[in-house]
Design goal:
mainly alpha, 71% helix, disordered C terminus
Length: 209
């Protein structure tokens, strides 16, 4: 009897492996791993924001509007619970992507504003934070692209016959993915040219005669 059960189990195992079950397991784990890296890099960026805002405020306190925008954008990012399950919810993933894009946009505007403050641009702490931010943006782009690719490969696999039959039996669903709309614009890291001289002030009007 044990021998019969062993043979049945072996047949089931061979059947599952032949229908892509093991590949689905590996693909699912790859998606989870890629998603974790995306979260790590986005968190790294969020962690830079308080020090960056504080440093800019020390030299350009009058830029209150953009400083508030960056702080609020970071708050919106922090309000989203970035769990592994979030990546399986299309609406939640879209909200997460929108919040992250909003923070990226606000940070870019902040760095553009910094061009107007030579003392800020020459501050060692600010230069270090700006370099860290650029590096983090690059890592975000790499991590996000890896995630997009892993999800595309997984979704293709579970839609392909006979894998789709196995996916149906074990309730494997197509995973949502990052939108590729405006991907290049969103992924472009903010760049500040510290060597560029500040724009010259406009000459004062001549006194009336």
């Amino acid at each position: 009897m044990r021998r019969i059960w062993a043979m049945v189990l072996a047949a089931i195992t061979l059947g599952l492996s032949g229908c892509g079950y093991n590949d689905m397991q590996r693909g699912d784990e790859q998606v989870k791993s890629s998603w974790s890296e995306v979260l790590n890099q986005y968190q790294r960026r969020a962690d830079l924001v308080p020090n960056l805002v504080s440093t800019v405020k020390g030299f350009a306190a009058q830029e209150q509007q953009i400083l508030v925008q960056v702080t609020e954008a970071r708050s919106r990012v922090g309000s989203i619970q970035a769990t592994p399950e979030l990546a399986n919810d299309p609406a939640a993933l879209a909200k997460f992507q929108q919040a992250q894009a909003g923070l990226g946009s606000a940070l870019s505007r902040l760095l553009v504003v910094s061009e107007n403050y030579p003392q800020l641009k020459s501050d060692a702490n600010f230069r270090d934070l700006q370099a860290q931010l650029e590096g983090t943006e690059n890592r975000i782009t790499v991590a996000r692209n890896r995630y997009i690719k892993s999800v595309q490969e997984y979704n293709t696999m579970i839609r392909t016959f006979p894998n789709n039959l196995t996916a149906m039996v074990f309730s494997y669903q197509v995973k949502p993915n990052f939108s590729v709309e405006n991907e290049k614009a969103i992924a472009a890291p903010p760049v500040v040219n510290f060597d560029k001289p500040a724009p010259a002030a406009a000459p004062a009007p001549a006194p009336a005669k």
